[in-house]
Amino acid sequence: MKHKLFSPYTIKNITLKNRIVMSPMCMYSSYKQDGHIQPFHITHYESRAAGQVGLVMTEATSVLPEGRISHEDLGIWDDAQVEGLAKITEAVHRHDAKTAIQLAHAGRKANLRDEIFAPSPLPFNDSLKVPTEMLKEDIDRTVVAFRDAAVRSKQAGFDIIELHAAHGYLINQFLSPLTNKRKDEYGGTRENRYRFLRETIEAVKTEWDGPLLVRISGAEYDDSGNSMDDFVFFAEEMKAQGVDLIDVSSGGIVPAPIEPYPGYQVKYAEKIKEKANIHTGAVGLITSGNQAEEILQNDRADLIFLARALLKNPYWPKQAADELGYELEGPRQYTRAW
User: Which pTM was predicted?
Assistant: First the structure.
């Protein structure tokens, strides 16, 4: 049987050497609080590329200073940040891996000293600030910031862009009726709630012609939140706008109990792939090669996004290859142990 996990995958003009993706994971390590990368970031990302991950995606990288989750987040709101980000892409490309950047804005989940913004003035919990409700000029400024971030992403040498519309951050806040209580053209119906993401995609695509991914939360764990029908609608709209793949996670929009189990989010990726006829990525406690192979062989998703598994083991692809009986070529420097 052909091992699909290690088969190439082409998105638009970019071909990944395998289906293994390093999922974006915040490192909170920009210690100078200026959004710039540190030596740690280069080592962190290059080690996964050396481990033969096909696509290495950076952590959530903020398009505006007030869009950071913390003061230690990476940023891409300033031209001066491009040089550091380019060091990441250069390091990853040395290992025949492709690079992606997740463009993000935390909205009401920003834990900052300064003013924070959201679609509606609703705090996430008792410990975070009440956000300022965004005026139309704030929305327009943020859309432009995403567009400018796409320009800088190209300058830094990234192959793929992902927009972060999951986990209760700003775009997700516009999409969800739990957090969007607006009475204008950005609130109310799901068509209106989608408007901010629509405008963001349109703006990004004016400057970016490479592969474009969007991460969404495929479940909100609240009966008053978006349903699977809503997520399929959003997915169909994204497909019509030229989004190439949807990275399907879940939760984060409101505090809610979640009982994770191996592959607990795969069903959401599977449903969206089937109903919206769009490629998807699966993520969430995928830990073994056999598990990843089953997802791909049964066409439940097209890419495997790994988070904690790659934190534990940067060489997870080798572990999976051994498990599946596949001869994975590794770095020549490691041949004696590979």
Answer: 0.97
